[in-house]
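Sample entry (279 residues):
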Amino acid sequence: MPKPTHDLYAAALTCLLTTDPEQKISLASQLQQAWLAGEVVRSLPTAPVQTIAVPGRPAKPELVLPKQMKQRKLHHLEGRIALLHAVAHIEFNAINLALDAVYRFREMPDAYYSDWLQVAAEEAYHFNLVRSRLRELGADYGDLPAHNGLWEHALKTDHDVLVRMALVPRVLEARGLDVTPPMMERLHEVGDSVTAEVLAIILRDEVGHVRMGSYWYRYCCELRGLEPESTFRQLLREVLQAPVRGPFYTEGRLQAGFSAQELKQLQELEANWLVEISV
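Predicted structure, serialized as tokens:
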């Protein structure tokens, strides 16, 4: 007998709207496995794509403005807990962002959905790793406030897969590549090699996620006859309305699909932007 099949987009939406973290983790992994096994398929849509103003998330953490987030030093336990909590929140949002990329954009090749279902499953794995470490340190996800900046970028880019691929993987996730090695170094300095190793696993996988974003961004540019690097800088100005912040983790960004020339141009763009702001 043939295997029962379910609609990919409906399944992705169900997982996206799931609020319980443990259930979302399980569903994300199951959805990737079901896709690879041919148990979910891309059906013709029966309902229009929804704008997801609020994705599935638990009642805690409380969401506050970024400027209300307290900065804590890593040589204190509470500082390391705050860092892990922030990373857990990023990873939880990243599950939703990957699922939304599957649910929202319906005209891409099958390989696109394979990639972003893989990302969703890996982000779920990352969240579980970080949450486990938080619990080892006597805390849990939801104990501290967090901000909603990541999902705000999802809403800014929900109209166009090219814009999404440009400004979520190649800006938000790529920024994670830049800041993680210094954090790992500092954690080793304060004697928390266990947390540093958790971040090392995440860094390894995030290079691949940004590389997927770069690939599908360039795929979309080629379809539309656009030059990728100049188009990216234009999107930074017109949609994000901000430059890519440095300093860059050059090795990681090169592995993730940025060219050396592009990195140089992005550094120049940031410098020029700072001059414009100060005038």
